[in-house]
Design brief:
It is a single chain. This protein has 159 residues and is of the alpha/beta class. It has a single domain, classed as Alpha-Beta Barrel (TIM Barrel), CATH 3.20.20. It is 26% helix and 23% strand. The chain is built from five helices and nine strands, in the order βββααβαβαβαβββ. It has a nine-stranded mixed β-sheet. It starts with a strand and ends in a 12-residue tail after the last strand.
């Protein structure tokens, strides 16, 4: 699956929104660097993007209102960070099952599973239960793994 990067409110490689019509796939993994680094969400970009493709959004929200706004703006799935407090994670899971947990250890995986989570972002596959958005060094496509070959190197934690 192709990764798209949002930086300064612009999708890299698709500076004009009408260019999205030429995106070669019907789904993408979107990384909002503004949300991750400045906690500034690009809701208008998500809405425009959702007109063309389905996408999983890596934005690491930690407030319930932001999580809801992300879903309402068109994201199919939302990636949350493994540092999210349990009480917040439970609130998010009560709102939607379409949550991907950024996991660096089996402890992260087990914690997320305790909330009935079953989608993970990682450079490792800890087992064959659930769905992994995988950015490891070797191509792994299977019923349990979606490989992200263009995942940014500087975001690869623990690999």
């Amino acid at each position: 699956m192709e990764c798209l990067i949002i930086n300064d409110g612009i999708i890299q490689g698709y500076e004009r929104k009408n260019q999205l019509v030429r995106f070669p796939e019907d789904e993408a993994f979107v990384i909002d660097m503004d949300a991750i680094t400045k906690y500034k969400f690009n809701y208008n970009v998500y809405g425009e993007l959702s007109k063309y493709i389905e996408f999983t959004l890596m934005a690491f929200p930690y407030r319930e209102a932001d999580f809801i706004d992300i879903l309402m703006s068109g994201a199919s799935r939302v990636v949350v960070n493994n540092t999210i407090p349990d009480i917040t994670l439970k609130k998010f899971m009560d709102l939607s099952e379409e949550i991907v947990m950024n996991c660096q250890s089996y402890t992260d995986v087990a914690r997320f599973r305790s909330f009935s989570g079953n989608m993970f972002l990682s450079c490792r596959m800890f087992d064959n239960n659930g769905l992994y958005f995988y950015y490891g060094a070797f191509e792994k496509e299977s019923e349990h793994a979606i490989w992200l070959p263009s995942f940014p190197q500087d975001l690869k934690n623990g690999c």
